[in-house]
Every structure is written in C-alpha cells, then in structure tokens.
Write a structure and sequence with these properties.
The protein has helices spanning about 5-30, 40, 60-85, 95-100, and strands spanning about 50-55, 55-60, 105, 110-115, 120-135, 140-155, 160-175, 205. With about 240 residues, it is of the alpha+beta class. It has a single domain (about 5-70, about 100-190, about 205-230), classed as Nuclear Transport Factor 2, Chain: A (Roll). Strands 1, 2, 3, 4, 5, 6, 7 and 8 form an 8-stranded mixed beta sheet that branches. Strand 6 and strand 7 form a beta hairpin.
Length: about 240
C-alpha cells in the first residue's frame, strides 16, 4: 500500500467518525430536550433538506424547522402544565430551568452502516433505533416504545458534515404494556392537563406512506436500504423523496 492509499483510508475513517459523532449528538439532543437546536446545528444550510416519517415528508427548510419548532412548543406547554400541577416541587425553579420536565425521549442509535462517497462530498448512513419516550397526555405521563430505523444522506459543508435528508421510520409504536399491534388506550383525564388535548404536531407537507407500523396483517416490509459503496451522489439512491 502506498502513501496515497493510506492517506485516503485515514480520510475515510475520519469522515465516518465525524458522521457517527454527528448522529450521536443528534440522539443526545432528543434526550437533553435540545430539539429546538437540531436544524440550526445539524442540518445542511441548503434549502432542500427533508425529514421523512412513516406518514410522509417534511420537505424544505420551512417544513423541517416547523416540525422541530412544534416539538419545542410542546416542551414549553408540558413544562408549564407540570409546574402548575406540582408547584411545591418547582417553587425554586424558573420555567427555563424546568424546561423539558416530565419528558424523556431516548433515541439510542446502534448497528451503524456508513458509506462515504468516493468523491468525499456526501455520505449515507443507517442505524437501528429502539426508542422509549414519555409523553404528557390529558391522562398524565404515558410511556411509549418506538422501534425502527434512522437513515440519512449527509453533505460536507465548510463547517463539517451535515444532515441533508433524514428518515425516522418506525416499525413499532406502542403504548407501554400493550401488544405491538394494539391501539393506544388513553388513561382517564387528570385535572390540570386538559390543554394537552389541543396540541397537534404539524402534518407532513408531502403526505405519502413511507412505512406502515407493524400489525399481524401487514405484508412483508423490507428494512430501508442499507448504504452500499458509491462514487458520487445519485438522487435515485437518496433517503429523500424520489421524483415521480
């Protein structure tokens, strides 16, 4: 192996590490209730960024920013209601200090497969995700499980690697204590949490079924495509929306 080959291998290793570190920080932002920072800190500055979930794509910067802003607004509402419900526990805390109280969202990413393009300008990666999170409902805090995949196209920018197209697809989304295929069973309303009934996340601006949640009657559904070695970005192999 000559010096040039060794140098290229080191560059590929460094790029893979940078991409995996980026996604580790992405996971941590959910856990630490820093979702409001995700787009500004981790997504590309391009206008054509996207986020795909089971029910469609948030396509374009405004839509992706709107999704994470909605999570931030939900955090604010949850903090307000919990502080009002338990004033003694929060008498020495400001809303800023208590931000995110009562919520847990852990998105551990594992079994990574990351490929850096031969031209070094883009990358692709996929991870499995076995998430558990708590949500404040009108019936109080409720725990849910989500199991699925996180996949992304990345682009190299002046400040480093950034997310370009992101997919968060769940095979399983289930309330704790229920079978995988059962519908949620809401708890009886708890006084003080009524305002949670009014909160809604924005709908994807491109509505399309990207993945159906597990059910006994669901047809065989392959996992998202695992990245393969590639030379340069090809829209046909993107984790963003494919052109019709």
């Amino acid at each position: 192996m000559n010096h040039i080959d060794a140098e290229k291998l080191v560059t590929i290793w460094e790029d893979r590490r940078a991409v995996q570190n980026l996604m580790g920080i992405f996971s941590g932002h959910y856990l630490l209730k820093k979702e409001k920072n995700i787009v500004a800190e981790m997504f590309s500055g391009r206008a054509d960024i996207s986020l795909g979930i089971n029910t469609g794509y948030y396509e374009g910067r405004e839509a992706v920013e709107g999704y994470y802003e909605a999570i931030h607004q939900k955090n604010l509402l949850t903090t307000k209601l919990i502080m009002s419900k338990y004033p003694e526990e929060f008498k020495d805390k400001t809303p800023e200090e208590a931000y995110g109280c009562g919520l847990l969202n852990y998105k551990p990413l594992d079994t990574p497969v990351v490929e850096i393009a031969g031209d070094g300008k883009t990358a692709r990666g996929i991870w499995t995700c076995r998430n558990s999170y708590s949500d404040l409902t009108t019936g109080g805090p409720v725990t849910f499980y989500e199991w699925g995949w996180v996949a992304a196209d990345f682009v190299r920018e002046e400040t480093g690697w950034k997310i370009w197209h992101l997919l968060i697809l769940n095979d399983v989304h289930v309330q704790a204590g229920l079978e995988y295929y059962e519908a949620d069973k809401p708890y009886p309303p708890v006084p003080g949490f009524e305002d949670m009934a009014e909160f809604r996340m924005p709908e994807p601006n491109v509505k399309v079924t990207l993945r159906e949640s597990y059910s006994p009657n669901r047809p065989r559904t392959p996992a998202p495509e695992v990245p393969k070695p590639y030379e340069t970005f090809d829209p046909a192999c993107s984790y963003g929306r494919k052109e019709a």
